[in-house]
Design a protein that fits this description.
146 residues
Length: 146
């Protein structure tokens, strides 16, 4: 069965009055718009502050861990230094005791046993043949003698 076409029923008001425009729902008062703007701005600032706080906290934790690791290394090196110093002193003591024993053939130093050597004659510096291209030896870092 076919449906009859829909037809609007005119109302009494439509024939006598003009249609008024409804107020815009997006139009908020100025004080409300300023509060919304303030809320958005404070959200952005809050987000930035939280990010900065987390970054500073992470950096603090990282540097604390790094400092702790390096401090443990320092303590280990100081302990090894004390052990080496102690071992060095023990060896010096053993050498001194061996030198004092009568079976070694060592005699205590005195001025009568001192040897004086005459100085070596001065030598002139001679040019080195075919070694001009070789690299000079670096100066030793430790003294050769006392």
């Amino acid at each position: 069965m076919p449906k009859p076409p829909l037809m609007g029923v005119p109302s009494r008001a439509a024939t006598h009055q003009r249609v008024e425009k409804l107020p815009d729902v997006n139009q908020n008062p100025l004080w409300l718009r300023s509060l919304l703007f303030l809320q958005r701005g404070s959200s952005v600032v809050t987000f930035c502050l939280i990010g900065t706080t987390l970054a500073v906290y992470a950096w603090t934790v990282y540097t604390q861990q790094l400092w702790s690791r390096e401090y443990r290394k320092l303590e280990n090196l100081q302990r090894e230094e004390r052990q080496l110093t102690g071992a060095n002193e023990v060896m010096k003591n053993q050498l001194a005791q061996q030198a004092e024993s009568t079976g070694t053939g060592l005699v205590p130093p005195n001025p009568a046993n001192t040897l004086f050597l005459p100085p070596a004659p001065q030598r002139s510096v001679a040019a080195t043949p075919n070694n001009a291209n070789s690299d000079p030896k670096p100066a030793p870092k430790m003294p050769l003698g006392y």
